[in-house]
Amino acid sequence: MHYFSDNATPVCPAVMAAIQAADVADHGYDGDAWSARLDSAFSALFDAPVRAMWVASGTAANSIALACLCPPYGGIICHEEAHVVVDECGAPGFFTHGASLMTLPGDGAKLSPDSVAERLKAIRPDVHQVPASAISITNATEYGLSYTPDEVAALGDLARAHGLGLHMDGARFANAVAYHGFHPADVTWRAGVDILSFGCVKNGGMMGEALLFFGAQADARFAEAARWRKRSGHLFSKGRYLAAQLLAMVEGDLWLANARAANAAAQALAGAVPDRLMHPVQANELFIRLSAVEAAALRAQGFDFYDWGDGAARLVTNWSHDAAAVAPLAMALRSLPG
Amino acid sequence: MHYFSDNATPVCPAVMAAIQAADVADHGYDGDAWSARLDSAFSALFDAPVRAMWVASGTAANSIALACLCPPYGGIICHEEAHVVVDECGAPGFFTHGASLMTLPGDGAKLSPDSVAERLKAIRPDVHQVPASAISITNATEYGLSYTPDEVAALGDLARAHGLGLHMDGARFANAVAYHGFHPADVTWRAGVDILSFGCVKNGGMMGEALLFFGAQADARFAEAARWRKRSGHLFSKGRYLAAQLLAMVEGDLWLANARAANAAAQALAGAVPDRLMHPVQANELFIRLSAVEAAALRAQGFDFYDWGDGAARLVTNWSHDAAAVAPLAMALRSLPG
Amino acid sequence: MHYFSDNATPVCPAVMAAIQAADVADHGYDGDAWSARLDSAFSALFDAPVRAMWVASGTAANSIALACLCPPYGGIICHEEAHVVVDECGAPGFFTHGASLMTLPGDGAKLSPDSVAERLKAIRPDVHQVPASAISITNATEYGLSYTPDEVAALGDLARAHGLGLHMDGARFANAVAYHGFHPADVTWRAGVDILSFGCVKNGGMMGEALLFFGAQADARFAEAARWRKRSGHLFSKGRYLAAQLLAMVEGDLWLANARAANAAAQALAGAVPDRLMHPVQANELFIRLSAVEAAALRAQGFDFYDWGDGAARLVTNWSHDAAAVAPLAMALRSLPG
Amino acid sequence: MHYFSDNATPVCPAVMAAIQAADVADHGYDGDAWSARLDSAFSALFDAPVRAMWVASGTAANSIALACLCPPYGGIICHEEAHVVVDECGAPGFFTHGASLMTLPGDGAKLSPDSVAERLKAIRPDVHQVPASAISITNATEYGLSYTPDEVAALGDLARAHGLGLHMDGARFANAVAYHGFHPADVTWRAGVDILSFGCVKNGGMMGEALLFFGAQADARFAEAARWRKRSGHLFSKGRYLAAQLLAMVEGDLWLANARAANAAAQALAGAVPDRLMHPVQANELFIRLSAVEAAALRAQGFDFYDWGDGAARLVTNWSHDAAAVAPLAMALRSLPG
Questions:
Q1: CB–CB of C15/C206 below 8 Å?
Q2: Is residue C317 one of the residues assigned to a domain?
Q3: Which of A304, B273, D97, D235 could form an S-S bond across to D230 if both were Cys, CB 3.0 to 4.6 Å?
Q4: What residue ranges are annotated as transmembrane (chains A, B, C, D) (predicted)?
Q5: Which residue range forms the structural domain that includes residue B139?
Q6: Looking at chain C, which subunits does it touch, using at least 3 CB pairs closer than 8 Å as the criterion?
Q7: Same domain, D190 and D270
Q8: How remote is the C-alpha of A71 from its chain's centroid?
């Protein structure tokens, strides 16, 4: 049974059904009936006027967002282990035409306002140094932690005070919202987020994420993002198949239901190995201490997952899981001699 | 009934079935079983070792190909009405980091070896002028003409003689091959083509084209293209759903069957209006002289299509058509007073 | 005696003296006393508030100007034989991160408002096509023609009506102004020019041109240009040696005196071969019909110049010339049997 | 008396004389007699075949070098306080089209082979992570330390073993060589350096550095660099004035004589405040502990320099100094109460 990535899981049935329902003739690109509903669907979800755009992948969503917030000579403050830094082959550098990633350490891949403030203070305001233009955070983080609205708002305040844009990589946004139970608006635009990469693929979609623009500059940024989307080859000619997936997720509460299932499974596993946890479990990922011998023992029982350096492993649950489904792994973990 | 674009047509049933068959757990990105079969499937089709990569859109396929063939300070010789020039919002400039499109005129959007040779001769070999690095042609062309193997080979010879790469935009490659009946190898690698954007979406796919690398540099270019694909956000996390579409197209002869249907429909329409044709019909597009009054009359009967400047229109047939399906439009065209 | 380029000529004595006068200790980059005087010197010259920046080369000046006026996904309308198109190895593509050069034909390398208007009309306002963002003209043109204020204003009106920026490549701006005798303001900001590359090197300088920003957006564009200048390696650490050259040119009327000398020399030559002229002579360049035999005959007498394709030649006069200096060449031209 | 930067110092007389000697008519760009001598002059100096190119600024030299060694999707390992990281407004990102700077800590701004090796080991060889493509070091470093040949060779061995290019930013290369007394070849190509930015401006030049290419790939990289130089606006039309400066530096031993003078002055100052030194003094820069009160006291005596954060200052000596010239500052430093 695979726990190496939520990308490995099939598409959830409601999304597949939506794809098939969209299998009719309609206008190309984003001129179709499904794409036309995105703004209203996400505005309803976020309780505010939202401009919403389908984008094929999380990397494209993040990169286009950053290109809207940062000029080529600017910098993006982010965590040193952020996906945009370590897992996108430099995509932000490509889309921004060479902007700098200004990386910071921080527990659990979270950015702290103090470290951001200190970094900002160190930048000389002359033409020789790269000015900071944006802050990018991941929620849930790369280590499965979820920001509270207050934590985001502290960064949002800093961003506003320094004239920076604030981007949130929400590849697992649903899991973060489901964990805390806050309203999605509280942890985004109400806390100062300008652009959100709203993830769907890891949460049961086939392909396609939503790029959401909040606030007074939403229209202008959306228009610019539309150029980047086309120019980067991401304006698909049959966009209705993407839009339909997003609508299936958010016109009901599928996005939250799926995330809750994955989170519940993660909690069930966490409960089995409280002493092994390297980070709090606040989404659908667990990072646990696990020796090579233990890892081999689990794999021998059919459980698959990634090692995370020496003596550690990452387990990822997904929408198709629930506490029962992961019970065998929970038991196997409990039964480890260590 | 719509004739404005082959993008407007639904996915063909065999492709949809393939997508559903791929709806199982497997490794992410291109680590799945379907992606693993691409090289062999296309090698069989092209009767030669081919490196094949799924890419989400035609724009991405073309741009990544050009980035593999042309440095930022180089130039790409292409037709002034090529898709890469007029319909991709500058995507080649984005992916190549600013290479120049060296545009040439030519009947039916075809490049002639003479005009290419003349253009090459005009470039001074000093550091002030942009050197030509690649030639890009579209087959079938933007006006629905299809290159013969000899025509491609004449350009291929020029390319080789001047050390240029040769790219073919094959968004409607299937229609071109189906029209002439040549072996796909004859009009590509045997004629000097280095990289082919092999189109699927217009031919019945949902999303995803194949980028095919031929010849001695195929491996090196594939490796570089893999970086561009990731860096541009086109390495989808659930790539199996793309790979499955491509395999459904080419592991049988669906790609040709679909193209033949579209071509037959185009010929049926062409036969109805021989005197209105602005270009020979050698694929699935017709460009016809049509007054505004005539266009309105057709639309009143339920036929939809794009105007093509003043006094002209474009009609595009697709995989779901055949001669019978387009009979009503053929009759309506014949019945126009003019 | 060389007539192949005004680049080949030594620095004029007043500029060399200014360089030596600047050979004292002062702050680095543009923090020195000379750089601080640029704004006021050029504001006086242009009779309006001007933001002025030294830049090392004409290519850098042009490219930075275009990067301030055109986003990566935009287009720049210019003549197909403009320096930015044919002689800068794609520098505008580099500085703009891949913007498109939208080239137009036109007699004497001049852009006509009609052809620009027609080009603008042909662009669909959708996301697939590159929108025009700027117009760039060269004055004097690559064929030695000079725009009148009315001609520039017609382009300026078009630019304003379509929301485009207007750039003037003034590598030989002094020659153009000297020829017509208009006030420099009349042919620039009063006619709608936003940014001017004010040439010095061809006019007797050693290195360094001035980039001039006019109008309401001058400050914002200057600030952005300052980033591009630094980022492209053009913010020299001892900028005072560049600034001093520019001031020597424009704090008196050296720039005009030099240009008048070169122009007078060109007129003297033109008067010798009225029937050979391929273009009106309105600056310091002559393009004349000249057979290979005739060219050889002139070279045998010690005159050096560039061939300009078959049966033609380019002769360039410079600041160190006057009518007397070019009398030997004038006589040799008159004496040609043809 | 100024100690804030070696950029503030006038040009040394021999360089100014060389500029004036070059003030004759010659071919433009790098077609002149001075530019033609660069290869042989630097080959003699480095005791090996060297391809040498003038470039206007250190930022341009570094960036062009990195663009020759690193693709857009690659990474450059360098110190976190390197000039390319903190003082060039992201120029390497501009010239490389978005390559990543992979920064490492290290005493005195030196890179240690161990930290580089560890960084290399952490990069997964998949398409998601940016591969390392080059190492860039500064010699003398930003804190005035000079690498020994053995230290460079250890990095050169690592570079070769991993297929990386090795670049040396030698803005103060002369000071480094003068300090250790090694042959310039020992600390460059014999130790594995592929490209050297050979600094002249800080060492008494007006403008212009030399970009030097060593080894088997020198010709190919030079050819590519020539494109970048043109494309970035750095191919000046009167290049002879730059080439002449470089030749004046290295056809005799002016470059070393100037550096020795600056170094001697630095040692004289260091000897005055051994307990205040924050780094060993191995070139022409001193970083000393200095309270705000002490700094004010020195400035009141007419000594100018930059603060270096709280409680510290940077003093830079230059070619016009010697031990006698800095004696007043040495005495003032000794006389500080602290």
A1: yes
A2: yes
A3: D235
A4: none
A5: 13-250
A6: A, B, D
A7: no
A8: 23
- The residue of C30, C55, C207, C304 whose CB has the most chain D CBs within 10 angstroms, and thus the best one to mutate to test that interface, is C207
Query: Considering only alpha carbons, which residue of chain B is nearest residue D30?
Result: B127
- CB spacing of C227 vs A71 below 8 angstroms: yes
Q: Which amino acid is at D227?
A: R
For position A57, which CATH number holds? Answer: 3.40.640.10
Is B231 near chain D, with CB under 8 Å? yes
Q: Of chain A residues 235-264, which have a CB less than 8 A from chain B?
A: 235-238, 241-242
CATH of the domain at B274: 3.90.1150.10
pLDDT class of C79 with cuts at 50, 70, 90? very high
Angle at B328 between CA B323 and CA B329, to 5 degrees: 85
CB contact under 8 A, A60 and B24: no
Residues in C touching B129 (Cβ below 8 Å): 86-87, 89
What stretches of chain B show up as alpha helix (H) in DSSP? 13-21, 38-46, 58-69, 83-86, 91-95, 113-121, 149-161, 173-180, 218-231, 240-250, 254-272, 292-300, 327-334
Residue B338 pLDDT: 65
* Cβ contact, residue pair B234, A23, below 8 Å: no
Helix (H) or strand (E) holding D118: helix D113-121
What confidence tier does C322 reach under pLDDT thresholds 50, 70, 90? confident
Quote the number of domains for chain C: 2
Residues A211 and A271 in one domain: no
pLDDT tens over chain A, length 338 residues: 789 898 999 999 999 999 999 999 999 999 999 999 999 999 999 999 999 999 999 999 999 999 999 999 999 999 999 999 999 999 999 999 999 999 999 999 999 999 999 999 999 999 999 999 999 999 999 999 999 999 999 999 999 999 999 999 999 999 999 999 999 999 999 999 999 999 999 999 999 999 999 999 999 999 999 999 999 999 999 999 999 999 999 999 999 999 999 999 999 999 999 999 999 999 999 999 999 999 999 999 999 999 998 999 999 999 999 878 999 999 999 999 86
Rounded CA separation A111/A176 (Å): 16
Mean predicted confidence (pLDDT) in B25-52: 97
Q: Are residues C81 and C168 in the same domain?
A: yes
Whether residues D263 and D130 fall in one domain:
no
Tell me, yes or no, if A57 comes closer than 8 A to chain B by beta carbon.
yes
User: Is some CB atom of chain A closer than 8 A to the CB atom of B304?
Assistant: no
User: Above 90 in pLDDT, residue B134?
Assistant: yes
Q: Is residue A1 part of a domain?
A: no
| Residue D295 shares a structural domain with residue D206 | no
Instruction: Please judge whether D231 and C201 are an interchain contact, meaning their C-beta atoms are less than 8 angstroms apart.
Output: no
Residue window 187-216, chain C: list those with CB within 8 Å of chain D.
201-202, 206-207
| B306 and B158 assigned to the same domain | no
| D234:C63 CB<8 A | no
- Residue D6 lies inside a defined structural domain of this protein: no
Give the domain-ending residue among C222, C250, C278.
C250
Are D147 and D288 in a shared domain?
no
Q: Are residues D92 and D237 in the same domain?
A: yes
Contacts of C129 in chain B (CB under 8 A): 86-87, 89
Residues of D within 8 A of B128 (CB-CB) are 29, 230, 235
- Residue C294 falls inside a structural domain: yes
Q: How far apart are CA B215 and CA B199, in angstroms?
A: 20
- Sheet bearing C165-170, strands edge to edge: C51-55, C209-213, C195-198, C165-170, C132-138, C75-79, C100-104
For chain B, what percentages of helix, strand and coil (3-state, to nearest 5) are there? 45, 15, 40
Q: Is C94 on the interface with A (CB under 8 A)?
A: no
Boundary residue ending a domain (B250, B265, B291): B250
